[in-house]
C-alpha cells in the first residue's frame, strides 16, 4: 500500500504533470502530421528526457507515443492519409465513413476505442509483468540468450516484408554493435583506427537517423499532401457508448490481439492494427460491408493498436527486449535514468513501476478531452506546411543527437549516415525496425552468448539441455522456419486449386 | 528473375558478411579462453553471407509482393502517381545538410549554420522566400533558446554567439 501512495506522490509531482501535459500536446501534433510517425516523435524526445527526472522522462515517452498513435487516425479519417503507419490498416475504412458524412463518428471511434484499448493494455502490463518477473528471476545467460534471439526472430517474422531481408537487417544491426571496445576481449573491433569508433555506435543517433532523418528524406521525394478543408464536426463522443455495447466482442478481441502483438518483441502498433483489421473482417457476419465505411473493423483495429503500446513495455521492463520500436527507444532512456530493465526492477523499484502504470492510465484518460480539442483544431494543425515543419525537424535531429552524445559532433555524422542507410534500406524492402532491434539488443546478445560459451567450455549442449532454454530454443527455430512452412502451405493449396 | 536492386543489395550484404567473418577471425583471442571477441562477428558474418546469397537468389521475394499489394490496396491512388526522377535525388539533401552542420557548426556557430540549413531545406520543399527567410531567422533562434535555457546544452557560438 505504501508503495502505491509513494507512486502517486511520484506521478503527481508538478514536473511530472507538466511533462505529461506538454508531451501529450507534442504527441498529438506530431502524430497528426502525415509522414511523422509515433516512433519519430519518441526519438526526437530523447534529448529532452536527458534533463528530466526519471519518472518525468518515462512519462513523456509514454504519453507522447499514446497520443501520437491516436492522432495519426485524424488525417487518415479526413484526408485518407495515415498520420502514422499504425493507422494505415484502416485509413480506407475511416475515410469511407467521412465520405458518408460520418466524420465525427469515425473520429469518435478512433478516440474512444484508442483510450479504452490503452487502458486494457495497461491492465495487461500490470498483471503480466509481475508474474513474468517471478519466473524470469530464475533465468541464466542461456535463457537470456534464447530470449533475445526469440525476440529478434519475432521482429523479423512480423516485418511485412521478405523474412530473409528482415533477418539480414537484424544481423546488420548486430554487426554494428560489434564496433568498438565494449566486447568480451576488450579489443578494438571494426574501428579502422579511428578514435571516434572506439566507443561504438550509440543507439540513439542511429535511431534518430533511421526514424527521423530518413522520414524527412522520404518527404522530399513525395508529393505534399492535399490541404485539409475546414469542416464543421458534430459531437465527437455521441453514440460511442452504444457502439461499445453493440460491438463488445470486436473490442475485446482487438484488445487481446493488440496485447499479444505488443508483448511479442519487435511487433508494435502498426502490426497490431493490420492483424486486427484482417481478423475483424474474417470473423464478421457482414464482411462485405468492410471498406464501405463500416465501424466494426475500425473499432477492432483502433482498440488493438493502442493496446499494443502498453504491453510492448512488458518485455522491455523485464528483459530489456523492446516490444516495439517505441520501447526500443524507451529502453535506452530507462538505462540512462538508472531504471535498468530486469526482473528485480519490480521488487527494488516497485514504486517507480506503479508510477509507470498510473502514468499509462492517466495518459489514456486525458487523451479523450485533449483528443477532442485536437480534432477540432485539426484543420489548422494538419495543414501546417511541410516546408516549415521538416527543416525544423532536421535541425532537431542534428542538435538532439549532439546533445545526447555528450556534445559530440561524431553523433551528427552518425545521424546523417544512418539516415542515408535507413532510406536506402527502406526503398529496397529491408525493414529498418529489425535493424534498430539488432542495434539495441546486440551487446546483450553477444554478452549472453559468449558468457554462456565460456561457462560451458565451448560446448553448445547446455543451450539445448536446460529445460527452459530448450523450450525457448524450439520457439526460436519455429519462428525461423515459420515463413518456409507458410509458403509451402500456400503452394500446396495453390496446386490443389489448380488441379480442381 | 530477381530484381536488379535485390541482386546488388544481396551481394553487398554477402560481401559484408564475408568481410566481417574474415576480420573477426583475425581478432586476438583472450588468453586461456576458447571463446573471445572473435566468436560473435564470425557468427553474424556467416549469417549475413547466407542471407545475402538467398536474397540474390530471390528467395523470400514472394512475401514482399504480398505486403506491397496490401499497402497499395489500402492507400489513395494519387499517392503512387510518379514524380519526376530528379526528385528522388533530393533525398540526399538532408544528410548532406547534416554533414554540413558537423563541419561548419564549430567555426560558424549554431545560429548561422542552422539558418543556412533551414533556408536550403525549406526551399527544397518548395517554400517561397516569404516563408523560408523568416523561418530561417526565427527557428534556429528558438531552438537555441530551448536547448540553452531549458535543457542547458551549450551550442557552438562561432561567429555569432547567442545574444544572452
From TrEMBL, chain A:
Top-rank lineage group of the source organism: Bacteria
UniProt domain DUF112: residue ranges: 17-437
Family annotation (InterPro entries): DUF112_TM
Record-annotated membrane-spanning stretches: 7-29, 49-70, 106-133, 139-159, 171-192, 313-334, 354-375, 387-403, 409-425, 432-450, 470-488
Coiled coil (UniProt feature): none
Keywords for this protein: Membrane, Transmembrane, Transmembrane helix
PANTHER family assigned: TRICARBOXYLIC TRANSPORT PROTEIN
Protein name per the record: C4-dicarboxylate ABC transporter permease
Protein species of origin: Bosea caraganae
